[in-house]
Every structure is written in structure tokens, then in C-alpha cells.
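Entry 14. Structure prediction run on the chain below.
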Amino acid sequence: MLAPDSFVHTDTLIIGAGQAGLAAAYFLQQAQVSSILLEQAPTIGAQWASRYDSLRLFSPAWASGLPGLPWPGSQRRYPTKDEAAAYLRRYAAHFGFDVRLNEQVVRLRAAGPYAFEVTAASGTRYAAQRVIVCTGGLATPKIPAWASALAPDVLQLHSSAYQRPGQLPGTGPVAVVGSGNSAVQIAADVAATGRPVYIAYDERTKAMPNNTLMWVTLQSLGLLQASRHGLVGGFMHGQPEPVVADALRTLRRFTNAHFIGRATGVAGASIEGQRRATPPLRAVVWATGFRPDYSWIELPIIQADGLPRHHRGLSEPAGLAFLGLPWLDSRGSALMGGVAHDARRVVKQLLRAESAVERKKGN
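Output returned:
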């Protein structure tokens, strides 16, 4: 057993064993480069498993696989969140990746190019030539500051803590605040119980179809992989994130679901929207997104928005990279079925750049 103050050495350290980390491990393994994955949760796929019960992937199984292992069962279905967690566990076991669970990283520092030191909360320290950070951008729930002015008897939950309608007290009105897919799905989940639901939703948000034809079109035209640094990807990046049209239609069918426009503030126990205010509420679910948290990275690369400075995933000093962030390079960068495109390129560029440095040293 290693002493807490000793180093565990590896060629590449991957921080985070979700879909991005596993995709990175796959391409490193294909290149015959050793890696260790550090995962703060007690099991792989814990983030998926912890989400609300009704959550499903927004893409069919055939468009959601990681490289080298298709989903089991029907490829046309839209997998549940529990199936997603099970698939990630199966994927890691199938390829025999070295995953260290319950290992939360509390410090990353660089001793120089291709020389990194990582410290875990357990006290174990790791040394690696390369580090790929795959923790994503969903670290800290984001709730408007004015939410604190809501009446204290109104239960407030962030979408990350919402599981099912039964969590919400009573039978009175509930508000769901947000303009993304989670907001729409959660609002429909609650509306299905029959209680009044008020959706603070920006109705300028575009809706996209979610069927086989759409996914075939996206894949065949390469739209999910179009770099935001190019013409097509740059245009897509400048547009608001769309929601799935089927989920929005389902929500609009409920006569007890009321759209109030984008939320602008609170008054007592009510949420004020651009179109109208809610009646006094029993509960609010904030589906308002997340903030990243890279406070553990002791390098001058974290920007004012909390995100790391990088170019298509490659950062500084040499040997450091990021994967799995929304729009890291393209619309597919944070999707289970799209992250492999970035992972293949980033791993290839990391290894090629280091080889060039070694050749230069040898001359």
C-alpha cells in the first residue's frame, strides 16, 4: 500500500470517469499509452444515475455510443438515465480501464511542460506527463440571486436535486424555471400528476424535431462535429440551445401547464414572468443550469467566466487538455455520442506534440 505522501506514476492522468474520460481512455489504450482515471463518485455513471427518474437521452442509442462498444438492446430506443449509467460501467469494465473511485481531486499543478502533479482528497498524489480534465461544466447549481427573496414557505429545488413529483409538497401550484430540455421534461413530469404547473420559459427558444430522420441528417452532414471556429459551427454556436420539440408538444398538451414567459423576479410566494405572474406557489424547481468549478486547478488558465482557456481542448502548459465541455469545439462536444470526435483528436494531438518535443531534444 502506498504511503499518502508518495506518488503514483502514470503516462496520462484522466480526471473524471464519465463519458468524456472513458472516451479519452479508449483512444489512449488504442495508442498503447497507459492511463489512470480518477472518479470522485463511488461508482461510474453516478451523475447519470442521480438525475430525475423520467430523464432519457435526447438521442437514440445508435447515435449515443462511445467508440468500440455499441449499446445493448434496440438501437432505436432513447435510453433512460439508469441505462446510461449502466452503459458507462459496462464500457469501463469491457476495456479494463484503471479507474480509481472515491478519488476527488483537490489540486492540480504543473512542474513544467509534460510534468504534472495531482493531489486527491485521500492524500494520494499522482505524477503524470499528461493530464486530461474531463469533469465537465456541471459542477455547481446556478440559481438567480433574486431567488432568495422568495417566501420562505416555498420549497426551492435545483433540477440536480429533483427526482420525482412526489418530492414536491402538497397539491398546489408549482413553478419550473428554465428554457432548456430539463425544464420542459420536469414541467411535463409534474403536470402529469394533475397539479398546476407554471413554466417560466423564454418562448424565443427554438424547438428541434427528435426523430430518426433528424439524427441521420445531423450525422450524415457532420453538423454535430462542425467546429465553432468554422463558418457552420460558428453560426450554430451563436444560436440559443434548442429544446426537443416532442417534449415541448407533450408539455403544451396539458391544460394545467401555463407558460408565463421568461422569469424576471419574485413577489412574495410568486414568480414574475414577462407575460404574467404565478399564483402563490408551493414549490419551485430551478432548471437554470450550472457553473463550472475549477478552483482546484493551480494554473493561470481559468477565465472570468470560470471556464479554462484552451483551443479546441488543448491548454497550457503543454500536456494539459480538457474534454466534455459544452461547445469545447462543437455542438457534440458534451454529448455522449459526440465526445469521441474531440477525444480522438485531442489524444492524437497530445501524443504527437510530445513526440515532436522528444525528437527536438534528441537532435
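The mean pLDDT is 93.
Filed with the rest of this week's runs.
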